Amino acid sequence: MVTKLPKTDVVTIGVGWTGGIIAAEASKAGLKVVGLERGPNRGTANFSMKHDELRYAIRGELMQDLSRETLTFRHKSSQRALPMRQYGSFMLGNGVGGAGTHWNGMTDRYNPYDFEIRSKTIERYGEGKIADGLLIQDWGITYDEMEPYYTMFDKMAGISADETPLRGERSEPFPNPALIHGPELDLFKETTEKMGLDPFIIPAANNSQPYKNPDGQQIAACQMKGFCERFGCEYGAKASPNVTVVPTALKTGNFDLRPHSEVVEVLHKDGKATGVIYVDTRTGERFEQPAEIVAITSYTFNNNRLLLNSNLGTPYNPETGRGTVGKNYCYQVIVGTDGFFDDRKFNTAIGSGGLGATLDNFNADNFDHTDLDFLHGGTVIINQPGKRPIENNQVPPGTPKWGKEFKKQSLKYYNRLLNVHTYGAVMPHVNNYLDLDPTYKDVHGNPLIRMTFDYSETDRKRGHFLNNQTKKIMQEMGATHVSENESVEHYDITTYQATHNTGGVIMGADPETSAVNNYLQMWEADNVFVVGGSAYPHQSGYNATHTLAALAYRASEGIIKFSKDGGKLA
User: Fold this and answer.
1) Closest to 549 measured CA to CA, from 112, 164, 106
2) How many Å apart are CA 40 and CA 38, to the nearest integer?
3) Is residue 551 within 8 Å of 149, Cβ to Cβ?
4) Exposed/middle/buried for residue 505 (C-beta within 10 Å: 0-12, 13-18, 19+)
5) DSSP state of 71
6) Using one digit for the tens of pLDDT, what is the confidence trace for 156-171?
7) Domain boundaries, the chain
8) Domain 2-565 is of which CATH architecture?
9) Rounded Cα gap, residues 399 and 417, in angstroms
10) Which UniProt keywords apply (predicted)?
């Protein structure tokens, strides 16, 4: 039996950064918003003194329960996909705040090149530069059009930074100065400057000082205690939906937040969504929530899966190239170099999730690709997140993996190890996509999402190039022992890299090649907005969160316009 509820103006499916921003903006505009979140509600008080690495970082207290719903994975379509039974390459958030609760806080704008990647590539190198099988396309929006939405997030979250060379122009300065940092970042900056590169401190959502945002929400100053990634901030100093947009939405009186509410279907008829079906995860009771506008605002995999399970949109077919839902799934090429120092120590236990130094000299099209067999690149990064004791226990190459010598080297190098790594871009390929698994189902009996993905040849070449840059930098920094280059032959889902999954419901200017327009409004159902990393036509060489949030502000504007005027927005 399904209980039908009164109709609302907007329903969001998920209450993380995207659902929280839409809830805040739409409710401030006077729309009635229902926020459905399948996990529990959480806030700063729930995170106090939670320094349990085993519980949160390893066992994933804040993450999606894979025994209820997971995904299946294979490298290529000729293989049988198998379920991901435990977390490895990435971790999917659960509960109010979503992945925005447990993120580190690195906040990167995408490069102007990203938004017009096909046009700018052809303009500079010719169409022959685009390798066979790559599905790169322009986003249907430019950096200049995106810039105001980036600035809205900066001000709402209190982003801390000073300057960002080789990135797009800014209309306003950062609201807070950069975080203080330790000698390891100074060493990186001094070294790379001598190499003729342009390092800077990464913009961070970990606030460098107490800050009140334009909505009146107070964000505390970071205490540099670490325990950021995979944890909620016990001080309320890391901008997350829990301390910013969700309280703002609730303050309006127009937002009805419903945790423990798992959406299993989007209802639609004659090209319009009519509402959603959701399950109370505590009781199993089913409800129908009618709505004028449906905003699908969950994680990349869940956005794709919900559309496919609801028969909403046209599934991508890799054999014909037709269809758009599931198309252009991308991850990142993440490689790096460990450096062990015999002659100096660093206080690596002190830090903050988003604290680090980076450079963009090898990112986007900031360097000449004429003689290179790949497009794009990646940021080069050194982080100071505050090392935790269990998982951060590397030893020099050649050290035994256990026993007396391992213990000796482990103690010696705990504060003598640095890592320089990259967030490398991934270009969409015809053979990388998302669809429904024909065999495996979730706890409700609905098919799981199936991920078919491996690095393309151009991804491998980009990865090798970036790995060589990190190795050169680490050697110049004076490390005594330097690790060997990492393998990028095949994507490995078993080892954590980053929770940066994108694509499948991509944006663009043409309904033949994209699922949503530049307001993230579906071409095939104009009262449905699909908001999140699922909208990215390719994966850039940055942390993905800032662009996701900026697009949510853009989608909020579209939702408010649509509620008044209806019709297609772009």
Assistant:
1) 106
2) 7
3) yes
4) buried
5) E
6) 999 999 999 999 999 9
7) 2-565
8) 3-Layer(bba) Sandwich (3.50)
9) 14
10) FAD, Flavoprotein, Oxidoreductase
